[in-house]
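Protein modeling request. Please complete all fields; requests missing the sequence field cannot be processed.
Requester role: graduate student
Desired output: 3D structure, token encoding
Chains: 1
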Amino acid sequence: MRVRLLTLAVAGLALLAPAPPPVAASRASDGPRRPVAPQEGSVSAAELLSRVRDCTPVSRGRYRTDADAPATIPVCGTDGAVFWTADMDIDCDGRPGLLCNSTTDPTFSPATAFQQSDGRHLSAESLPFIVVPGVSGIWNHRDHGVRGGSVAAVVYRDRVHYAVVGDVGPREIIGEASYAAAEALGIRPDPRGGGVASGVTYIVFKDSRATPIESHTSAVELGERLSRTFVTAAVTAPGVRRKADTAVLNIVSGGV
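Delivered output (256 residues):
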């Protein structure tokens, strides 16, 4: 969802409207429900950020973080991954639950672009996933090995958490992730006014796939292996860097 603030036309109506269930209201507005771990796996935020300091653009243009923002965000790439640094808006779409539904999210949609193994739409409140921009002249994620279930390392401050590509957003806007992804990173996950304005780095590993897409355990296990190989390139000589990127591709393809 890309609407960060809903202004009531008549404030007094809020007093007359039925209150949402107490648990849903408090959880949606108060932020994380569980203790936030600094990271998943052993690869640190500093290691990953060091690897993506330099940008070789793979997008033909740049993205906006919101509809009224300037287009300043390129998608960058290496042989093994694509990445960008942007904001994080909260996607609460997908299978409705206690925290993500038409009451907690005024622009709620019960569908996600990709579905889990049993055919149901993903659950934004329980599955950490990120949103990629829709295919356009700016960038086609499919041309760079990115699809539903692709594994991503998401970095915010000193925290690293893994997610899958789970939804597709507007064609000119970038920087969005599920309620569960925001919560894991210590970002306020309220779809009505949560998120963070900047400083989130999304690293998506090409041709990777969590199996099944709804298995966060699979995303973490594969993401940890890919991240470790990815950051190896940051401490090798420039002539060896391409080999390290190729090693990322070997992991996702089952090679050695």
